[in-house]
Amino acid sequence: MSRHQLGDELERRGISRRDFLGFCASMAAVLGLPDTATNAIAAAVENEARPILIWLEFQDCAGNTESFLRATHPTVADLILDSISLNYHETLMAAAGSQAESVRQRTVRDNVGKYIAVVEGSIPDGADGGYCTIGGRSALDIAREVCGGAAATIAVGTCAAFGGIPAAAPNPTGALSVADAVPGVKNLINMSACPANAENITALIVYYMTLKQWPPLDQYRRPLFAYGKTIHDNCERRAHFDAGQFVEAWGDEAHRHGQCLYKMGCKGPATSQNCPVVKWNEGTNWPIGCGHPCLGCAEPNFWDTMTPFYQRLPEVVGFNVGKWIDPVGLSLVGLAAAAAAFHGIGEVARHHLGKTRPIEDKAGSEK
Amino acid sequence: MTLKRVYVWELPVRLTHWLLFFSILTLSATGYYIGHPFISVPSPAKDHFVMGTMRAVHLYAAIVFTLAVLARLYWLFAGNRYARFSEFIPLSLWRLRSLWRTFLYYSFIRHDPDDYPGHNALAALSYAGIFMIYLVMIATGLALYTVIASASSPFQVFDFLVPLFNGLQMARLIHHIGMWIVLIFVVAHIYFVFLSSIIEHIGTFDSIFSGYKFVPEKEAERS
Description:
The complex is a heterodimer of chains A (about 375) and B (about 220).
Chain A: H1 7-12, H2 17-30, H3 37-47, E1 53-57, H4 63-69, H5 74-87, E2 88-89, H6 97-110, E3 116-120, E4 123-124, E5 133-134, E6 137-138, H7 139-148, E7 152-156, H8 157-162, E8 175-176, H9 178-181, E9 188-191, H10 198-211, H11 224-227, H12 238-243, H13 253-256, H14 275-278, H15 302-305, H16 321-352, H17 359-366
Parallel strand pairs in A: 1-2, 1-3, 3-7, 7-9
Antiparallel strand pairs in A: 4-8, 5-6
Helix pairs in contact in A: 2-3, 3-10, 4-10
Chain B: E1 3-7, H1 11-35, H2 50-78, H3 85-88, H4 93-106, H5 121-145, H6 161-164, H7 168-200, H8 204-210, E2 212-216, H9 217-221
Antiparallel strand pairs in B: 1-2
Helix pairs in contact in B: 1-2, 1-7, 5-7
């Protein structure tokens, strides 16, 4: 039995044909493909050689790995994951030390231009790359070697895609995204979010296996099937937003009735992701579904521009402009009106004191 | 001193002025609600559309505002001498002098206002500044609109503006700050127009309806 073919293995692992087609149909749904795509996906997943993946972890919390391990269809997704982890994955591989490093090097060398690099975590370039080293080599060095020879690079999670939390101000380690750390990287796909949704990562790989190409991307190189709409567009609480029904305080009546979290600082309107549709933890629920505003974790610089999380407008360089701008603006308009009134009194006074050009002159000459 | 009737504001100037006036009032009122939804409605949600209406009105008013700004910018090149580019940037010596004189007049130091038929140099400079703010408001507004518009909308050509403002949230903050600057300008503008109308008696307020001002003859000749 070929390790790279899924068909026989499904049976061996006790996955029924029905479960397998269910998985393929759900992948078609995530990708926004019609129902008829299910058969094509099934054929591709069953028969095509699985792409070789090398999963690199740098400045991260392993949250994306954790998320991926909890994919909705663990048995089927596991099989796809197997070909990833078997080559190189720091958290999952059994090998350690120089043995593990040599596996990675061999995979890169033997499959130049054919394998897919997956990067999790940001890449620091401070202290000559000294803030993150593996086996004595800097993350920057490893990323350039592995991503440089890859057919495509998938940056999983906001840290790899945009720098994420390590790159938040003041960015002590000089953390970079994959795009910045590996200039000219080929076929980069950013799967941002903190963590990236396992359904979307699996769907991306299935898309590639089925169609032999990468999906259309947005301006931040994120696949449109997962990042083409905002949280707000598909939010289950959207009707409350349009109507004008807002939560004003935690646990108030509106909150208990599941109304809109906009005034509690929800960043759904500024965040592109398919959370409301795909949800989390086997489709159980998602943040807004359980009464918490969206933090905007899928967007570039989210830690700097989406904070404070429970406020509509952002804080700038330690001064909470977002909180004060509107009261201050309103006061300044009032102040301007008051200043105008005072100036007007002055003008009237000077007019009565005869300190301006007499109006009679002009009025008289007008005839 | 004889007064001369001068045609100062052509129809496009007056028209864009009033389009800007009404669109700014509408945009500020709906925009304030969008930032701070102060009206809350009872359940069920299907019976109400307050935020939805505010946003729709805001977007339509934004179209009027943007087209009015663009039309007025075009008229900088096509309009009469009082509407042109050179009016707004005090580069010539007499405009700089007029700027200083107007400042002294408003500070109660000089007693005679500057009688130039068009904008006084200080007002013109403030209009140049406020039009810069208008452009920033249009740019931040278009950036925010890219996430409202569908992925296939032609308005997606403006999505390059989003990273330019360091993300949607920063664009949103700048959009708020811009509104307050515009409203402070509106208060000052209305005050100075009435001041000029009442004290100088040259028909400043009427001129934005009729297009005509009444100015001392020698001032009307100045260029």
